[in-house]
Amino acid sequence: MDAFIQQLLNGLMSGSLYALVALGYTMVYGILRIINFAHGDVLMIGALIGLSVIRLLQAAWPELPAVLVLLLATLIAMACCALLAVLIERVAYRRLRHAPRLAPLISGIGVSLLLQTAAMLVWTRNPQMFPQLLSLEPIEVLPSASGHGAVTNATALTTIGIALAVMLALLVLVERSRFGRAMRAVAENPQVASLMGIDPNRIIVLTFAIGGALAALAGIMMASNYGSAHFYMGFLPGIKAFTAAVLGGIGNLKGAMLGGLLLGLIEVLGTGYLGTATGGVFGSNYQDVFAFIVLIAVLVLRPSGILGERLASRA
């Protein structure tokens, strides 16, 4: 039982990060019907910008509390990545909205490679050590009768808590606010929405900005948990987040959240229990395989995802 709770916590931590990134994919797809394959690299840029800000703050004001340094770095990285996502939309996608679907796909891949190369030139190819600003002291969770429970730390618990809070806030924003109604109207029919006083370009730009900010938040939390950041760190999380969006139902916000959490649990439980059952043949080195097995299975058995696609029909 203790081992299961331990795996559950690990899976929730990974899954909450996938869910944050998957939200960016699903919001853009819900409005524009395109997959922004540069989204994972926005995560990487956010983590590296956060790292640079942390170094600057610690060098200029060494007396600042570690939590405040991390908070300031996170907010600055989120703002920078929101602007970066807006720039990507303006340069790589705006003129391709009505082009064949292959065109924005190729454009997104090109932007992804461009961001990786730029990051490699600015921050070098070598992995950068990300400072541990939150406590790594072990925290025992739900101790059993034997006196031993699952072990985690403040960084992992903070990651899960912030991710769940941000996802809930985004859901309320989209479903209860004027911006959310405008977003759904643009997804339904941009021309009719513009006749009702809604600026489709503004809504699309804000959607990209929110997705970029969430990706930066996920990038900093990922770097904080794993202790490093590098120019290639966004590729696999980006692909897995896309898998999570497909698993839950592309275009469906609740589906993206559910898909991210489920994917994290599937990865961790799969490597933990299947690895034990096979004598370590399917150990942690094969963790990434489970994400792609899930992607293939969903595309074959239920292409619309668990909760189904939420796409407006356009005339």
Provide an overview of this structure.
The chain is mainly alpha-helical. It has one domain. It contains 11 helices and 4 strands; from the N terminus they run H-H-H-H-E-E-E-H-H-H-H-E-H-H-H. Strands 1-4 form a two-stranded antiparallel sheet. A two-stranded antiparallel sheet has the order 2-3. A hairpin with an 8-residue loop joins strand 2 (139-141) and strand 3. Helix 2 runs antiparallel to helix 3 and helix 5 (154-176) packs across helix 6.
List the helices and strands and how they pair.
Layout: H1 2-32, H2 39-60, H3 66-93, H4 102-123, E1 128-129, E2 139-141, E3 150-152, H5 154-176, H6 178-188, H7 190-195, H8 200-226, E4 228-229, H9 235-248, H10 253-277, H11 287-301
Helix pairs in contact: 1-5, 1-8, 1-9, 1-10, 2-3, 2-4, 2-8, 2-9, 3-8, 5-6, 5-8, 6-8, 9-10, 9-11, 10-11
